Amino acid sequence: MDLLVNVLVVGSGGREHAIGWKLSQSKHVDKVFFAPGNGGTENNIPIQAEDIDALAEFAKTNHCFTIVGPEAPLSKGIVDAFVQKGLPIFGPTKKAAQLESSKIWAKQFMQRNDIPTAPFGIFDNYTDAKNYVNSLNYPVVIKADGLAAGKGVIVCTDSKEALSAIDEMMVKNSFGSAGAKIVIEKRIDGIEASYIALCDGTTAVPMATSQDHKRVFDDDLGPNTGGMGAYSPTGIITDDLARQIQKDVIEKTVSSMKKEGIEFSGFLYAGIMIQDGKPYVLEFNTRMGDPECQPILMRMDSDLYEYLYASSKGTLSSLGQISWKNKTAVCIVLASKGYPESYPKNEPISGIDNAVGNDAMVFHAGTKLENGVVLSNGGRVLGVTALGDTLSNAISNAYSAAQKINWSSKYCRMDIGKKGLRYV
Ligand code: GLY
C-alpha cells in the first residue's frame, strides 16, 4: 500500500457520504469519486449504482478501489463482476449477499447453523400462509423474501393485520416479485439494536454498536422508514452481550458460510432483538446501516481504507481491533414532511455551513446541487451528526446543529437517542 489510491464509492445516501468523508482522511487515499453521489459529495460521476458495466469501466480507467454502499448492486453481483475483471472491490459476492437479498435463504441458513432467531414458516401460496397464521396463538412478522427498499417487513399486532399483510404481498403484489414468497415468523418483543462487523471470509472485526430509530414519528410511532436517526455506542448492548453476539451470531455466520463454500467479505450487519438478556437475529444486512454508518464513522479513529482493503484481501487478522473515540455520536435525520410516503422535492435548503463544526458534520442524502444552491431531492435529506462526551451531550449538540438548517418541508424526530439514556 505504498502508492496513493483512488476510491470509487457506489451509492448516493448519507452512508456513502460518510464513507467517502472518512476515506478522504486516509493517508493512502488520493481522490474519492461518488457514483452517482448527491448534493454534498464532490467528484460525482453520473453513473447509477446498479449500472455495473459502466462502474467497472470507470473504476478500470481511473484505477479505483471500489466500495459498494447499498444492497441492490451487491445482490446483482457487482463484486463478482469486478473480481472477474480483476478490479479491486470491497463487499460480499452475490451468493454471500443472499443473507440480505433473500429472507428465506437467511432464515434457513440460521436454522441449519443454530444461529438464534425466531421460529418461522415459509410460504409460496396464499391459502397455506393464511392457514398457518390462523393456527398460531402468537403475533407474527410477515417478510417479503426479496429486497423491497426497507418496506418488505410488516410487524403485526394480531391475525387480522397479518392476513392483510399476506394479502398485500401475495394477492395485491404490492412488492412485486419480492413478495411472491414470504416468511412468517414469531414476533419477538424486546429492545432492538444494530451490531455490525467487518469480515474478510474468516475474521470478523466488530464495528462500534449502535441503535437506529426506524419509525417516522417520536416514541416509535408511524410507519417504518429507512431510519430516522441513530447513535453509537449503545449501552443496550453491554460488553457481555457484545461478546455473545460476536461469537454466537457474527463469527458463527462467517464460519458457517465458509463451511458451506461461501466466503463472507464485507460489512455484516445483524439487526438484533434483545429479549430477557438474550440476542435474536431479526435480519441480516450485508452492508453498513444507514444512518448507523454516520455516527459509527464519526467515532472511528483507525484508518477506514486500511480495514476495507484488508477485508477485500482476507488479511483483517493482521490489523487487530479498530480504535474508537471515547465519545458518543448522534445522527439526526432531517427528512421532508410526508416521508416515507410522498413528499415535496426541489426546496432550497439553508444553514448547512453554519451547522458544520464543533465536532458536528452534515452528511447529505436526498440533496442535489443546482447553480450553487442545495435543493431537497429525496425523503431522507440530511444526517446531522455530532459528537459529545456523553450521550446526552451528543444529543444536544446534534439538535443544536440540526436547528440551524431549514427548508419548507423540513421534519425530524425530536427523541433520537432518548431510549439510550436509560442504559448509560
Ligand atoms: N438503518 C437500517 C438499515 O440500514 O437497514
What descriptors fit this protein?
about 425 residues; alpha+beta; Rossmann fold; Dna Ligase, domain 1; D-amino Acid Aminotransferase, Chain A, domain 1; 4 domains; six-stranded antiparallel sheet; four-stranded parallel sheet; 13 helices; 22 strands; binds glycine
- Ligands (ions, cofactors included): glycine
Poorly predicted segments: none
Rg of Cα set: 21 Å
What is the CATH C level class of the largest domain, in words? Answer: Alpha Beta
Largest β sheet strand count, sense and barrel closure: 6 strands, antiparallel
- Helical segment tally? 13
The end-to-end span amounts to 40 Å
Residue fraction in strands: 25-35%
Considering DSSP H and I runs of 4 or more, what fraction of the residues is helical? 25-40%
Structural class call reads alpha+beta
**Please, what is the CATH homologous superfamily of the largest domain?**
ATP-grasp fold, B domain
Instruction: Return the average pLDDT rounded to an integer.
Output: 97
CATH topology grouping of the largest domain: D-amino Acid Aminotransferase, Chain A, domain 1
The domain count comes to: 4
Number of strands: 22
Q: Would you identify the CATH architecture of the largest domain?
A: 2-Layer Sandwich
Broad shape: globular
